[in-house]
């Protein structure tokens, strides 16, 4: 049997290679996706080979990740449960898609992943595989082996001479890419515990950020960010630049007790500095360019879109249909937003757009010549007509 493993070089996937060989007699091909996690990928390749992989694919997916996954999600305004900017969730369908492609290239009959049986990632990986190649067998070792904890996994790795980044003293499970860094496990599992300040890696703690605010201007074209402070940037470079600015000012730290798809609550701490800036700026620009009915309906779409991403339903007809709606709304989302960054706070300080439907002469409290305030009386009379009819009916003595 040939198995293509979604390999990161972390604790779980490090021990899966020998486990697949020992328990399935499998020829293991490792596929590592470069999503901007900052790892030494040549070291990851060597580690996979030393762990027993026959071949290793290092796939540079950074640009595709930003343009085909992050930016569509940004345009949709998707945020899960009001806080989570979906950094891990949105990466899984891309990794799984490339896993399926490598399996086809290798002629493999199975794929494997390191997601646990308690988590969401198993669903995201496997729904994508089923959507793209339902004939592939899926092996999920965490649902099969006798290992029951991260401590067991660390012991298993040490017995086989496999170095792992986790320790029993700091057993955090981390996932990093261009969009975010997540932290789970260890003392974070108690929601009462505040995250220690030395936990953060992309972002300084807000209290350690500069005492003066920083400003950044972001230009959008049809909902897509294209320039930072007037400089046109490649999509990957743009996210990296905003991560640097946001990280230096303590932006994008979120502690969230979230509702997992599998039915339990979990606590995670997330760092999403650049994504937080982009989401704030994009939302502000939409406030200028979308009419009331469209903006309000898009809020509903954003919540549903976030659930689809979180639950792993990226490659579905509903998600494609929502993308079509979102793209239509973004036709006029062009302009510039100035964002203020200060000690963890990210706020819009100004916005302008050639498609703005905000009119000062209509909204002003000063003298104007375009709005007849007497018109409001008729408007309210018609708007309140059903209420008035109901009130008269309720007070009609003949109907008592």
| Helical run tally | 13
Shape: elongated
Order of helices and strands: EHEHEHHEHEHEEEEEHEEHHHEEHHH
Average pLDDT across residues? 94
**Largest pleated sheet:** 5 strands, parallel
**Overall SS class:** alpha/beta
- Using the coordinates above, name the CATH class of the largest domain: Alpha Beta
Which key phrases capture this entry?
13 helices, Argininosuccinate synthetase, chain A, domain 2, five-stranded antiparallel β-sheet, five-stranded parallel β-sheet, Rossmann fold, alpha/beta, 400 residues, 42% helix
Describe the protein in words.
The chain has helices at residues 11-24, 41-51, 62-76, 87-106, 121-132, 150-159, 235-248, 273-289, 292-311, 317-329, 360-363, 375-383, 385-394, and strands at 2-6, 27-34, 55-60, 110-112, 137-139, 173-176, 181-184, 214-221, 224-228, 231-232, 253-259, 265-271, 335-342, 345-352. With 400 residues, the protein is an alpha/beta fold. It folds into 2 domains: 2-169, 3-Layer(aba) Sandwich (Rossmann fold), CATH 3.40.50; 176-352, Alpha-Beta Complex (Argininosuccinate synthetase, chain A, domain 2). α4 packs across α5 (121-132) and α9 runs antiparallel to α10 (317-329). The chain is elongated. The model has no long low-confidence stretch (mean pLDDT 94).
């Amino acid at each position: 049997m040939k198995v293509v493993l979604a390999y990161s070089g972390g604790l779980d996937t490090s021990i899966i290679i020998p486990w697949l060989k020992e328990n399935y007699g499998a020829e293991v091909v490792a596929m590592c996706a470069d999503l901007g996690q900052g790892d030494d990928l040549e070291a990851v390749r060597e580690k996979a080979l030393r762990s027993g992989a026959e071949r290793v694919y290092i796939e540079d997916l950074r640009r595709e990740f930003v343009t085909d996954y992050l930016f569509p999600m940004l345009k949709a305004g998707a945020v899960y449960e009001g806080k989570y900017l979906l950094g891990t969730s949105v990466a899984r369908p891309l990794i799984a898609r490339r896993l399926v492609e490598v399996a086809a290239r290798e002629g493999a009959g199975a794929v494997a992943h390191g997601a646990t049986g308690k988590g969401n990632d198993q669903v995201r990986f496997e729904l994508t595989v089923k959507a793209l190649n339902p004939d592939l067998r899926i092996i999920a070792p965490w649902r099969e082996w006798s290992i029951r904890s991260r401590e067991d996994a660390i012991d298993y790795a040490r017995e086989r001479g496999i170095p792992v980044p986790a320790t029993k003293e700091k057993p955090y499970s981390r996932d990093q890419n261009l969009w975010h860094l997540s932290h789970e496990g260890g003392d974070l599992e108690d929601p009462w515990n505040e995250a220690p300040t030395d936990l953060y890696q992309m972002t300084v703690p807000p209290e350690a950020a500069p005492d003066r605010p920083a400003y950044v201007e972001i230009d959008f074209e049809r909902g897509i960010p294209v320039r930072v402070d007037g400089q046109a940037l490649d999509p990957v470079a743009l996210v990296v630049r905003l991560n640097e600015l946001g990280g230096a000012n303590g932006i994008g730290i979120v502690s969230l007790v979230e509702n997992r798809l599998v039915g339990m609550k979990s606590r995670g701490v997330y760092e999403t500095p650049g994504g937080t800036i982009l989401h704030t700026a994009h939302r502000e620009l939409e406030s200028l360019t979308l009419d009331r009915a469209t903006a309000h309906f898009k809020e509903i779409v954003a919540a549903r879109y976030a659930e689809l991403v979180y639950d792993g339903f990226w490659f579905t007809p509903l998600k494609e249909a929502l993308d079509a709606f979102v793209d239509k709304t973004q036709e006029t989302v062009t302009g510039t937003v100035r964002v203020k960054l200060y000690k963890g706070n990210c706020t819009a300080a100004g916005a302008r757009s050639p498609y703005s439907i905000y009119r000062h002469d209509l909204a002003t409290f000063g003298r104007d010549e375009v709005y007849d305030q007497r018109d409001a009386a008729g408007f309210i009379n018609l708007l309140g007509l059903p209420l008035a009819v109901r009130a008269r009916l309720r007070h009609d003595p003949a109907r008592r």
